[in-house]
Amino acid sequence: MKVFITDAGYKHTLGAIRCLGRENIYIIAGSSFKHSQSFYSSYCKKRVIYPDPRKENEFINFMLNYVKSNKMNVLLPIGYLTITVLSKHKDKLSPYIRIPIANYNSMKIASDKYRTMELAKNLGIKIPKTFDENKKIENFPVVIKGLKESGCIRYANSFKELSKFKTEDSIVQEYIPGEGYGFFALFNEGKVRAIFMHKRVREYPITGGPSTVAKSIYDPKLKELGLKLLESLNWHGVAMVEFKKDFRDDEFKLMEINPKFWGSLDLAIASGVDFPNLAVKMAVDGDVEPVFKYESGIKFRWLFPDDFLHLLANPGSAKSFIADFFDNNTKHNIWLSDIKPNLFQVCELPLTIISRIKNMNLRYPHGKPEVAP
Predict the structure, then answer these.
(1) Omega into 141 within 30° of 0, i.e. cis?
(2) What's the rounded Cα separation, in Å, for the pair 294 and 216?
(3) CATH number for the domain running over 178-358
(4) pLDDT digits (tens, 9 = 90+) for 97-112
(5) 3-class secondary structure per residue, 229-258
(6) Under CATH, what is the fold of the domain 2-99?
(7) How far apart are CA 169 and CA 332, in angstroms?
(8) What is the three-class DSSP state of 298?
């Protein structure tokens, strides 16, 4: 079997490639960048450089020509841009290759934070207070989030700070003090086929960002909320539903739907839910046996550069950072049998640190929310 996996530069792409490669699946990895960490994996049998997905027509024409000219079984997109663009043009590629992703009508809602919040509100799922007009803001801090994709986040502690940001293509919400949780699932035409849940232990940026250490958990309420959202979208493929558990009322508040594979994928695999293989098998065979049980209490860390960046931004975490080296329940993505991608990560670490110091955004790259005690 041959599988084309996109976005070879991401850490979770590496996790997916290793996972599928162990099953003797022939992996073709693609990226817009020549130097991408997954290209150095021993499980990557072929490298493909494709156009930036932001150049939509150029990217789709390239992918269409490639899948027509090369016999492959499954196209497995990983990143936000690739999955949303491929979803939009799925009908063009489907005659030539199987793609286990949602249809574009569902994708448009899941990939747009404003539409996601409207859906959640209609379903009775709690969301952060959202401000349509800045003048209606009663309390700070607020969070300014780009409507599309993750990462475009800023914090404002006053109207003066808020005025520095363009909010036309953003959603402005109250800041939720609390811990991050995720519900993850694989769906087959609206029917759930696998689930997983985690809690963030450490993250970077330290004010809220991707996990640098996460822990597998099971929470019935989290499961209920995640399933309600994805079932309402008649979802197909994988997705993550991200929540924060509000310290003030102990309620889950929806942050976003991540309509793709997620950064902490390694943890799900280590806990017993092999999402990449399940997605590929579902695409080829039409369905899979449901996987609803997994091991709770497993921790996973992404040392380079993620957890080191957390440590530098939050030196107070040094004790737990060191303790995790001696914790048998804490797994990691450093494979001695496939070490080249990890050496790539090590080499990138000082470059990332220097860049963040130079741009003065090592500790609080999104700003710092000032929360009253």
Answers:
(1) yes
(2) 9
(3) 3.30.470.20
(4) 999 999 999 999 999 9
(5) HHHHCCCCEEEEEEEEEECCCCCEEEEEEE
(6) Rossmann fold (3.40.50)
(7) 37
(8) coil
